[in-house]
Design a protein that fits this description.
Belongs to the GTR/RAG GTP-binding protein family. The chain is of the alpha/beta class. It has nine helices and eleven strands. The strands form two sheets. The chain has a six-stranded mixed beta sheet, sandwiched between helices. The chain has a five-stranded antiparallel beta sheet with strand order 8-7-11-10-9, sandwiched between helices. Helix 6 crosses helix 8 and helix 7 packs antiparallel against helix 9. The longest helix has 24 residues. The structure holds guanosine-5'-diphosphate and magnesium ion (MG).
């Protein structure tokens, strides 16, 4: 099998009306939250293929959650549904009045999954948290999460609280796809080396069409950022921006794109731009024109090496010539044109 192409079967299950199709449409089909109310009920299983990062295809099985269907999934369709599953995403509606019954159904699904795909990842989304008052949200989420774990024999599961009305949806789905991306360690090692090289406080890599966070690195300074949910906030904001751009340029949100956005303040510089065919990169560097220009140019240079490494699936080192930070000289004494060691941003 070609290691560069990965197809993963993802089961999306949970009671009818719990919000499965809504979130799938928002994350992968560029719907906005207010539009998903128009979606019809899912009858039986709806298959869709979504591409992620170019080489990962998610084969999504959105399984209608009406009782009659649930019964056939567990009986006559059992092997067909539960074989070769990479990920089960199980959605619990926080508003459901039949918590015990929901847990029993979930437990039967877990048993079937264990029988046919014991190596699958299991993610449980405790969904529609917007319907719970803010001050009770965390407590109720944690109680429900404990209950679900107690019924998840054989599997070490991840749980997320989510709502289509805020950024929590992006956090949950970024957590899910993070587990599925081939060669993630190559991407992460590359970004770590790159961040160090350009003295970045933070770098976030977003997938181009979903704007989900693929991965991120932050320096000691970057880690002090008090906005703990900034990654998913950015996903949410950028998705909304794409909709706005599409409206104003008469295109579709899927094709609305931009090359670069920048913000320069006395405290920091930020730019967000197209990186590879499938990604956008968000870079935060210290203030000053030199630091900014250096980071932009190095990002342009790094692009090529990054695409190559990420596709080939191995890491051959950082694509830029090494610069001695104390002298600003390259390996054979040359001055690297993009070195920022001769002018520190503070000296401007
Ligand atoms: N309040 C709230 N409603 C939601 C949320 N997600 C979905 N819904 C609503 O729940 C209903 C059922 O959603 P749908 O996606 O069709 O559920 P499915 O049967 O699991 O596919 C729709 O009216 C959605 O607008 C959410 O996070 N919060
Ligand atoms: Mg549905």
């Amino acid at each position: 099998m070609d290691v560069r192409k990965k197809k993963k079967k993802v089961l999306l299950m949970g009671k009818s009306g719990s919000g499965k199709s809504s979130m799938r449409s928002i994350i992968f089909s560029n719907y906005v939250a207010k539009d998903v109310r128009r979606l019809g009920a899912t009858i039986d299983v709806e298959h869709s293929h979504v591409k992620f990062m170019g080489n990962l295809t998610l084969n999504l099985w959105d399984c209608g959650g009406q009782d009659a269907f649930m019964e056939t999934y567990l009986a006559s369709q059992r092997a067909n549904i539960f074989s070769d599953v990479a990920v089960l995403i199980y959605v619990f509606d926080i508003e459901s009045r039949e918590v015990e019954r929901d847990l029993d159904t979930y437990n039967s699904i877990i048993e079937a999954l264990h029988e046919f795909s014991p190596g699958a990842y299991v993610f449980c989304l405790i969904h529609k948290l917007d319907l719970i008052q803010n001050e009770h949200r965390l407590r109720i989420y944690e109680e429900r999460s404990l209950l679900i774990r107690s019924r998840s024999e054989h599997f070490k599961i991840d749980t997320f609280g989510s709502s289509i009305w805020d950024q929590s949806l992006y956090k949950a789905w970024a957590g899910i796809v993070h587990k599925l991306i081939p060669n993630l360690y190559v991407i992460e090692r590359f970004l770590q080396a790159f961040a160090k090289k350009i003295d970045a406080e933070e770098i976030i890599l977003f997938e181009r069409s979903t704007f989900l966070t693929v991965t991120s690195v932050s320096s000691d300074v970057g880690s002090m950022n008090p906005i703990y949910d900034r990654h998913e906030r950015l996903s949410n904001i950028m998705k909304a921006f794409k909709h706005c751009a599409a409206r104003n340029t008469h295109t579709t949100p899927a094709s609305a794109g931009f090359l670069v956005m920048q913000t320069k303040t006395p405290q920091f510089n930020v730019f967000l731009g197209r990186f590879t065919d499938n990604t956008y990169i968000f870079v935060v560097v210290p203030p000053g024109e030199v630091a900014y220009n250096c980071a932009v140019l190095n990002t342009l240079l790094a692009r090529e090496g990054f695409s190559k490494d990420a596709i080939v699936g191995h890491y051959e080192g950082f694509p830029l010539p090494t610069v001695d930070s104390s002298t600003g000289k390259g390996p054979n004494g040359s001055t690297h044109p993009l070195s920022q060691s001769d002018t520190s941003p503070d000296e401007e």
